[in-house]
Automatic annotation (TrEMBL), chain A:
This is Ubiquitin-like modifier-activating enzyme 5. It comes from Zostera marina (Eelgrass). Keywords: ATP-binding, Metal-binding, Nucleotide-binding, Ubl conjugation pathway, Zinc. The keyword Nucleus does not apply. It holds the Pfam family ThiF.
Automatic annotation (TrEMBL), chain B:
GO terms for molecular function: UFM1 conjugating enzyme activity; UFM1 transferase activity. It holds the Pfam family UFC1. The active site is at 119 (glycyl thioester intermediate). It comes from the Eukaryota. This is Ubiquitin-fold modifier-conjugating enzyme 1. It comes from Zostera marina. Keywords: Ubl conjugation pathway. GO terms for biological process: protein ufmylation; response to endoplasmic reticulum stress; reticulophagy. The lineage of its organism: Eukaryota, Viridiplantae, Streptophyta, Embryophyta, Tracheophyta. InterPro entries: UBQ-conjugating_enzyme/RWD, Ufc1. CDD domains: UBCc_UFC1. Belongs to the ubiquitin-conjugating enzyme family. UFC1 subfamily.
Amino acid sequence: MEEELRAMAEDLEEFKRISRESVHADLFAQLQRRVEKITSLAKSGPIRRSKVKDMSAEVVDSNPYSRLMALQRMGIVKDYERIRNFSIAIVGIGGVGSVAAEMLTRCGIGRLLLYDYDTVELANMNRLFFRPDQVGMTKTDAAVQTLSDINPDVVLESYSMNITTVKGFETFTKSLTCQNTHSSKHFIGVDLVLSCVDNYEARMVVNQACNEINLTWIESGVSEDAVSGHIQLLIPGETACFACVPPLVVASGVDEKTLKRDGVCAASLPTTMGVIAGLLVQNALKFLLKFGHVSPYLGYNALKDFFPTMSMKPNLQCSNNSCLDRQREYVSRKPERDAAAKAKEAEMLSEAVETALHLDNEWNISIVGDDDVESSNASSSTSGMLPDGLIHELPTADFHQKAPIAQDSGAFPDDLDELRKHLDALNAA
Amino acid sequence: MEGWDPNTKSTLTQIPLLSTRAGPRDGAAWTQRLKEEYRALIAYTGMNKSNDNDWFRISATNPEGTHWSGKCWYVHNLRKYEFDLQFDIPVTYPATSPEIELPQLDGKTHKMYRGGKICLTVHFKPLWAKNWFGIAHGLCLGLAPWLAAEIPILVDSGAVKHKDDEVIASTTTTE
């Protein structure tokens, strides 16, 4: 726009010169003033910051990363700039996903892949991130618009599609594994998937993809009554997958009947969603930058400000075949893990000369490693032993019927086309 | 099996169960599963017809059998209300059920997700997961009770008009 205005001023000057009519002098002067004013207005408009090559720790007002790099000096994170090498996929750009995307963008994440099939609506405005002027845009495009303004260093990929269809799933898994050739960094695959979807079916699809590709993911959810939520870390083969056990949710802690209202599909609060997005991204950062402890499961009860935690082992009878494959691989890598643990222990020992804390051991107390009990209770799901404040999302099925099996009984043809024709004939009758 | 009327229960027990646990990415096993889906649908449709309770038409629109469409209808106060019906077989099928869509009712009721997907009761999913159900069971256990609960409300509130009254309606509404 600035260049256009400069060209316009030059044209005006030229026009003034060749017209040589002094009667128009006032008019020319006025036009020139107007162009100058518009030029200065255009200059004061929004400025986009340029990309930065390296993250600097220099504390100056103009450095977008100074406060993040300070994490190193504080001794929290070892090498913060590694964050630029990571790719994160966010599935579902709603109340939680969009906020998580903004947090990661402000943290300077290397690359974000955004998936959603929905468009922005006015009904979304009770949540954070999206603006009323984005109504009608796809959520992924609207997110890219805002995020690229906030931090142009982040490589953003927008996937406006439904991942639960056969075709959508193919595109989804391909995008999680293939290389991004548009950026100079040449990212390959993703390091972590964040699930921010609002339904069981989509979570099962993310679970399927991550089990097949062997990708760690963090699931997040906010209850339909908007007063509880949770995050759950899923490492294929190592922790329970989403199909291993019925999904866990946080009990509201009040009489359920007073909360369920007929005729309303879901309520939502920007506060609850913001809390869950914060917990989700906090754990994503801890996982990627290797600091602190990553919570295997963390619940949030907003009515009581209660945060239950727990962990879940994979189910040996899981219905998901890829989960069983990953479980076998995990078990087969046990010697490696033991050796690594032993090496670490030796390192610790060499650092500090050990002194026995208690010389006599009257009660024969000994320390048993977690791994020793791992194999014996690996099949233990969460049956009956849920910590306070957590419940299974779905009631158990109490119906087993003895119906005939739809196998080839001789009554129907065995050919698919014949069956199709048979149904069509019934439909037409 | 709380949440369902005895009629739905007894109908459900007569629809043949499916024995092949396979989804649309499972090649030959999926073809086998599709055959079972057809057998169950044929049995269910035949049963409805003989009980004078015919209420839907459904067929696969692609050779892979992953997209299905048709019609369903509900009789309220002696008038028949008919709607387009469609769904995709999800990639995680049969671990998750198909999400049944009635696109014409999108935006008319709270008991629906984006795109006209009907809200199912909390009792549906655990039953689906454990009992070797297929498309026919999904329609019987998911769509039929939904229509019975929602259509009378939608008609009485004026959100859904009978097609004979549509001429007047179309000039007044912008939907």
